[in-house]
Amino acid sequence: MKVTIHKLFDYLLSTTSEVPECVLGFSLSQSPRLAAFLPDLDPDLRLDWNGVSFQGLPALRDRVIAQAGLDGLCSAEDVLITAGAAEANYLCFRQLLEPGCEMISETPGWPQAAVMARAVGAVLKLVQRREDNGWRLDLDALAAQVTPKTRLIFLSNPNNPTGQLLTKAELIRLARIADTVGAWLIIDEVYAGLEWQGRRAPSIAGIYGRGITTGSVSKALGLQGLRTGWMICRDKGMIMDAVILRENASEIMNILGEHIAEIALRPDRLGPALAEARAEGAANLALLDGFIADQPRLSWVRPQAGLIGLARLDGEAAEPFARRLLSAPYRTFLLPGTAYDAPAHIRLGVGGGAAVNLREGLERLAACLAS
Ligand SMILES: Cc1ncc(COP(=O)(O)O)c(C=O)c1O
């Protein structure tokens, strides 16, 4: 079945030709420049594929295991390097879902799951995260949706778009719930690394045999354009199924992406890069939090992790408001909650560094809200 567009991408496409002067809700840390990696790159690197493994550069796979805290639990053999977490998710959805089977996911949540369930003809069951419950995921409600037909559970942790975190105990419970019917459990960790409350949650690949961790260097490290991510799973058949499907799409990894990601994930680079991203993210989040507290038409549940969250907008539907804010005189971009089936909310966030003009964007948002 044909893949159809989701509302988030539809909004991005319909606004690409706009030239906003400020962006609110940028979801990744400031992107480093290529120059930062040149001293560690080999000028003799052949721009062919890596020549060693269809799963990706072994050194990079080792780094992926280490950054996920999976040393001793998983090995490089359990990792497939992919074109971002998006491709990792895609490979899983395509290989695991079948017409008529059931998938459980969350709303608000990352729309890729719904699009792929629809395309494959799977039955999608959504668990509502409620704002009045701090956008927490109700595991009892999730468990109640499980049937013998449940093939897959897909969640993001931290959750996109609310920034709420599942704890270790919740992840263990989720694994038990999935295991009652032998379902696969994908936890998309693309936003991991910028936790404001509590520690980074453990990766599901280390907890559950049918657990699949997906992630990438896109968000906390700002390296989205490398298109380098991964899936981690201890089930060898799952990894091989993904390799086989990928052979019919992007075939192999992006060699420059593999090398730059490997450098970026070296401990002497990763630690300082995360520390810098955390310092900048925390300061900007405090600014945004204060801003929302001062705005009578806005309220939000502060994200526990990551650079984005959902704010409730009073008195106006989110999409017309976002379009009004994008037009003159405000020229400020943000995503309306319609992208997440949350039409009374807007997505706010603080990533992107100086280029997004955060302070000015907030002033313009205040003016638009007041007008
Ligand atoms: C939850 C989630 N998963 C995956 C992706 C895609 O990330 P990547 O650049 O690693 O493909 C995004 C991007 O916004 C996301 O929010």
Please give a structural write-up:
Strands 2-8-7-6-5-3-4 form a seven-stranded mixed beta sheet, with helices on both faces. With 371 residues, the protein is an alpha/beta fold. 35% of the residues lie in helices and 16% in strands. It has eleven helices and 13 strands. The chain folds into two domains: 7-32 and 269-370, Aspartate Aminotransferase, domain 1, CATH 3.90.1150; 44-268, Type I PLP-dependent aspartate aminotransferase-like (Major domain) (Aspartate Aminotransferase, domain 2, 3-Layer(aba) Sandwich). Helix 2 crosses helix 8. The chain binds pyridoxal-5'-phosphate. Pyridoxal-5'-phosphate binds at residues 27, 84-86, 110, 156, 160, 188, 190, 216, 218, 224, 229.
How large a portion of the residues is in β-strands, by DSSP E? 15-25%
Ligands, deduplicated: pyridoxal-5'-phosphate
Main sheet: strand order: 2-8-7-6-5-3-4
* String of helices and strands: HEHEHEHEHEHEEEHHHEEHEEEH
Biggest β-sheet description: 7 strands, mixed
CATH homologous superfamily designation of the largest domain:
Type I PLP-dependent aspartate aminotransferase-like (Major domain)
Mean pLDDT level: 96
Number of strands: 13
How far the N terminus sits from the C terminus, by CA atoms, comes to 45 Å
Indicate the CATH topology of the largest domain. Answer: Aspartate Aminotransferase, domain 2
Count of the domains: 2
Structural class: alpha/beta
User: What would you say the CATH architecture of the largest domain is?
Assistant: 3-Layer(aba) Sandwich
Helix count from the secondary structure assignment: 11
Give the CATH level 1 class of the largest domain: Alpha Beta
Write down the Rg: 20 Å
Level of helix content? 25-40%
Indicate the low-confidence ranges by residue numbers: none
Shape: globular
